[in-house]
Amino acid sequence: MISAATDEDNSQSTLLGHGERPFRSAGYSGGSAVGVQSHHVPSALVSHSEVEPGESSIESTIHDQAFRSSVVDLLGVLAYNELVAFERLAADASVAPTIGDKMALALMATAEIRHFTLLAERLADLGADPAEAMAPFVASIAAFHEQTAPSDWLESLVKAYVGDGIASDFYREVAQRVDPHTRALVLEVCSDSGHANFAVATVRAAIEEDPRLAGRLALWGRRLVGEAISGAQRVAAERDGLTALLVGDADRPGMGFGELGDMFSRITDAHTERMKILGMSA
After folding, report:
1. Which residues on neighbouring strands pair with residue 248, listed in sequence order?
2. CATH of residue 255
3. Which of 22, 41, 182, 256 could form a disulfide with 178 if both were Cys (CB 3.0 to 4.6 A apart)?
4. CA-CA distance, 158 to 169, in Å (whole number)?
């Protein structure tokens, strides 16, 4: 998902793993980073629906072209977010202040590329080219990162924690509008890779050592929430498929204005709780 370094490159299709799935069994399971105590993030935004018994495949559920296009848009934006998160975590690891920090970030990057691989495989299963599915979202995601470039290590951690959290909250909400198989995949890839625990522990330790940091980082967090929500709204508005998932179309009902307002209120409330966990006001 959204991570915190400053530059991003286009991905290469060789990561997609046709036939081979090197990241399925390898690496990090998404628990706490090395030596980091778990800090739980609010989970009341959405219900984590499971795939119902007897569901055979996404292809059997996604039977009309319009809905399939919406699902491809959702998986495409998530796939590109995961790819960028991998790139940025790797970049963050290269400037991490300690070997332990480098290790933790490298493990998290492994989890993000595993998520990317799952999404790319699902897109291929649906008959979509993963690179083509991601392409419409490159500019919007790049703009978000250009507008929120961190100035130091701690700002990069707060950005990853806050920005990634808001993005995950938004896409979990969208996932409530899709079929059970897609929903289960979205919830899996939106699960924390350990970055939240790592960011919370590191930022709180820094504030305990120098309490003056709290004010500056709180202001940074407030800026990030506005940019992240605006970015999510912009991405959804630019793609008819994502818009249809939220507000509906001729064949499927969507959220009314009141429901949309409630959704963004839940996302904002969850952000406020995350900032409290960091030891700062939102």
Report:
1. 253
2. 1.20.1260.10
3. 182
4. 16
**Whether the Cβ atoms of residue 92 and residue 3 lie closer than 8 Å to each other:** yes
Residue 73, SS3 per DSSP: helix
Q: What is the mean pLDDT of each run of 10 residues along the chain (282 residues)?
A: 42 34 32 36 41 42 77 95 92 89 90 94 95 95 92 90 88 90 94 83 94 93 89 84 78 72 87 88 70
Residue 259 tokens, joined: 């429901």
Look at residue 253 and give its three-state secondary structure: strand
Q: Which residue has the tokens 């790819």?
A: 83
Element (H, E) at 58: helix 58-61
Give the list of residues 6+ apart from residue 146 with CB closer than 8 angstroms, or none.
none
State the total domains in the chain: 1
Kindly report the length of the chain: 282
Please name the residue that has the structure tokens 């018994």.
Answer: 53
Helical pair 213-238 and 195-209, crossing angle rounded to 10 deg: 150
Q: Does residue 218 sit within a domain?
A: yes
pTM across the whole model = 0.75
Domain annotation covers residue 9? no
B/e letters for 242-273, b = 16+ CB within 10 Å, e = fewer, are bbbbbbeeeeeeebeeeeeeebeebbeebbee
Residue 191's domain comprises 63-278
Distance CA 81, CA 211 (A): 33
